[in-house]
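Appendix B, record 7
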Amino acid sequence: MTDGWNWRRPPTASSVPGEHQPPPGSPWWTDALNDPWRDPWAPSAVVLPPPPPSGGPPLEPVPDPDAPRRPLSLILLISTITALLAGGLGGTLGFVFAVRGGYASSGGIQLGGTGQQSPAAVARDPGSLAGVAKQVQPSVVTVHVTGAIGSGFVVSADGYVITNDHVVDGAGNTMTVSFSDGSTASAKLVGRAPESDIAVIKIAKSGLPAVEFGDSDALAVGDPVLAFGSPLALENTVTYGIVSALDRTIEAGESGGTTRYYAAIQTDAAVNQGNSGGPLVNAGGEVIGVNSVIRSVGGADNEAGNIGLAFAIPINQAKRIAQDIIDTGKARRTVIGAEVNGAGGAGGAKLRSVERAGPAAAAGLKAGDVLTKIDGHPVQDGTDLIALVRKHAPGAVVAVEYRRGTKTGSASVTLAADTN
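Structure tokens (predicted):
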């Protein structure tokens, strides 16, 4: 029987040799994907071919959610035991390493790195700043006077000390000094040179370490220096700086008192009240100056403080004056044999009068001449002339340049000592 369509019944499994039987209840033949006569009314299903091998690792099997699980208490027990074992092992290893590395102590945690151990006493180069300070400090003294304090330094083994005149001014003939090791001794005044701000005292003690002297004429701007003393009563203080300027002419003194003149060494080493009379030392440990005054912005003496402008008397001048005081009880004052008016017009020191038999007259200088240079240093006013003259020893020959009216000239002057 036909209905206009030529239906062909699919072959049965038994009629196709070599084919496998379909699964029970399956609407598909085993080669259904290749069957052109599939029954269109059969239940539908999707049959996918097995994926080609990818070469990657096999997929992780999905656990069966209905499979029985381990009890939670067993998991917690295993975790606790594992943590205790790990902690005990770590603590044991840590203690062993700490003991071997030197960290374990009864005082608790050891702080700091594990670098090389420092020796009990660090050996410092004698030429270092610390080495220079160690060398000089035993020769520096603190000078105690009534109601004040200053500094000084030992210049001979039998106890002579150089200090500033203004340190001992009004102190009487006796005073005390203290050393860097804390010991003290009495001292007495030997002599003073008020106009040069130098004084000498003698300690009642012998066998003292004396300083070494340098050459203040050999200094250069920028040379390193150390300032020693007792600023604001802080004994055994050392500060560091450089030579800021040379031959800085100073006119200092209290109103109604002695006026002091000198061509100073300027330094930026910190110097304050109490440093006066202490040594200014070069990098070789040699004294090249006597700390004396500072420039400050304070309106009163008790308000003055360091602003990096300190001045020291050159040691060549201070040593010469101190030697005069020790030898004769007083110091000679170097003079040019003329009086000055101050500034002379466009700079220079104008000679108001000239001593008839003095050094200036012997060199041909006259009243009214304006000195513009001495020994190569410019002269701006009378302070410059006086300070630069006193820098030299009596008998020194200096070259001067001058103006006389509209003409200029030069002369060599042999300086002399004041007869007073």
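Remarks on this record: The two ends are 168 Å apart (CA to CA). The chain has a mean pLDDT of 83.
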